[in-house]
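Give me structure tokens for this 374-residue protein.
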Amino acid sequence: MKAFIGGKLVLCDRVESGQALLFDEKIIGICNMDEIPSEAERIDVSGKLVLPGLIDIHTHGYGGHDCSDGDIGGMRKIALELTKNGVTAFCPTTMTLSYDSIERAFDIARRERAEFDEKRAFVLGVNCEGPFISEKKKGAQSGEFIRSPDVGLMERNRDILRLVTVAPELEGSLEFIKETAIMGIKVSLGHTDCDFERAMEAIDAGASHFTHLFNAMTPLNHRAPGAVGAALVSDAYCELIADTIHVHPGLFSSAAKAKRDKLVLITDSMRAAGMPDGNYTLGGQAVTVKDGECRLLDGTLAGSVLRLNEALRNMASHTDLPLHEIVSMATLNPAKAVGADLDRGSIEAGKRADFAVCDNNFNVVATYINGEKI
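Here you go.
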């Protein structure tokens, strides 16, 4: 048994100080300092924040590797490197590629999850971002491999899929959404040119999520609310890339106050994350990274080099929201969004002892998985 002492425990509804957090492989509970069992190993985290392990449900890569490379060594390197940012679980995210490439990436994610090493972040399941997207809003995705919604791909891989993006204006999309949601795979609306009404129809059909709010979707207009309007007024979860590049920080507070516990911070990171500026690839396309911006040769934004703990810092810097609400955007909210909140996402008795220990500026000083410092 171990006990964190001296730190601030960031719970889902408050920040607790002056208490101890008891855990082994799972969280045992919170107690007064004089109630710590004598056999417990005391870990002094004075002056630090103790967060639940961060969860990134939308990341394409990190540290020079891409989740779509089809390489188990690369996937394991991503899973290891993400822990340096406090991430303890993630959804490797595929791009609009050939079916062979996509399903090879699924197989690699499937293998990494089955062979989980507790020194790496856990693969919750795959986020399939494409190929069922709009040509008009493809963003940094390859138009060559865009396809109509295909339930067969979902059916063949329902064991590893957590989330799939679809543009709801595509022919057959509503039926695809209904059938996919019934399988237990969460459906996200994104890379879409749909109007407000169509987006709401898709939500009625079973979609429960929006891919990177504001980016690659029809914008908000007072007479044509678009996909952004539907995202803000619906009960769906919404991803946000809080790097101050994809979305102006002046909108962080408005988005958060509109969505509250349905706002999910993501990185949308590519292989250049954690690497120096230079030339890289994303989905087979050339990307130049300079001063934190990732762009295709035509200037289109192409993923990010954001770290999830940096996203927390940016939200704290540009909003007046309570600390516990901000932290939930990278812990409990994403866990709920993909149905993984039964055993992770918050500091509660019985959940996995996955933690990110940070300073007050969200710099990670230690990451714990299953109660072990890694």
